[in-house]
């Protein structure tokens, strides 16, 4: 397929960065999003319509050669409708699993991949018993539609069960045992239409209030890191996955377990734009188009990358800070509390240099991560 036009369901920053990586390869893009302010619209044609609007989806399909997504909660029915007209990656079957934490965890367990202990919760009474089973140290999550820690409720002691508001029980839930992890890591794996598979170096992620704040790559290598890679590859193969899949893990002293997976490019992979030989965005597109995958190694031997998320507001005068190997990404989104509106990537040649560069940048900006 020469100069393909790629349709992206969801027009957020992931779609925007996907397009920015695809233009140099001669690809064209059309975005589909219910919001007219979707920030990918600044870099390509944006169709504004609800995901259930079949006439709009039909028109979208006429404009594009192949379809992918930047948002895993696109209704599966809409994806199945689109799939009848144009190839879709990843497939609606994968989305059906990844959209629901219960399906996702059951899939992991069925393939011998450990995940956090959980119970399905449909009522307060079920919560009472499950919370007790997990020693009142757990996290109540909506099965569907969660992101950036939204739809989560911390159970911390017997009293907190009674304080869970009634309306939480209006949607299906799961309760997960809280894991006292040593660190959180993610594995980015890309698998192409023809089965070629690659992973990027391991990413270590820090969260604040359930939102990703920083990613450091490559994470310090521990005994369990090859296991995380094996698990991610096994998941991608068992799902017959096409594109980038990101698997988030909790690591304790002697175990790793899957937290969740993202059937798309992911915030913990943004460093790869400048930090890797080939970014997650470019390889996602290559995978869908059955093109050979690009090298997923670091940009230089022994180099390291840090990705810092800008959440809520962008520090003032940032663009006036111009340093070697510091890259700014503003998404063109209106600032709002808790909203990811940009990120920066820093590169360095040793863990100490990377650490010093982060500390110095944060000080210059007068922000806290
Ligand atoms: P995102 O879309 O940003 O990945 P999400 O809303 O899908 O987030 P999770 O990944 O399930 O949510 O949780 C967000 C963060 O909350 C995790 O990265 C972790 O820091 C913390 N967390 C979630 N579940 C657990 C758990 N069972 N034990 C300990 N910490 C947890
Ligand atoms: Mg997560």
User: Could you state the CATH homologous superfamily of the largest domain?
Assistant: ATP-grasp fold, B domain
Identify the bound ligands.
adenosine-5'-triphosphate, magnesium ion
Domain tally: 3
* Rounded mean pLDDT score: 95
In CATH terms, what is the fold-level topology of the largest domain? D-amino Acid Aminotransferase, Chain A, domain 1
Q: Could you explain the architecture of this structure?
A:
The chain has three domains: 5-88, Rossmann fold, CATH 3.40.50; 117-177, ATP-grasp fold, A domain (Dna Ligase, domain 1); 183-365, 2-Layer Sandwich (D-amino Acid Aminotransferase, Chain A, domain 1), CATH 3.30.470.20. Helix content is 28%, strand content 28%. It is built from eleven helices and 17 strands. The protein is globular, with a radius of gyration of 20 Å. With 369 residues, it is α+β, with helices and mostly antiparallel strands. It has helices at 13-22, 54-63, 76-83, 92-98, 101-110, 124-133, 158-162, 225-238, 272-275, 280-288, 351-365; strands at 5-9, 28-33, 45-48, 66-69, 118-121, 137-142, 152-156, 173-177, 183-191, 197-199, 203-208, 211-217, 243-251, 256-262, 304-311, 326-330, 340-348. The site of magnesium ion has 3 residues, from strand 14.
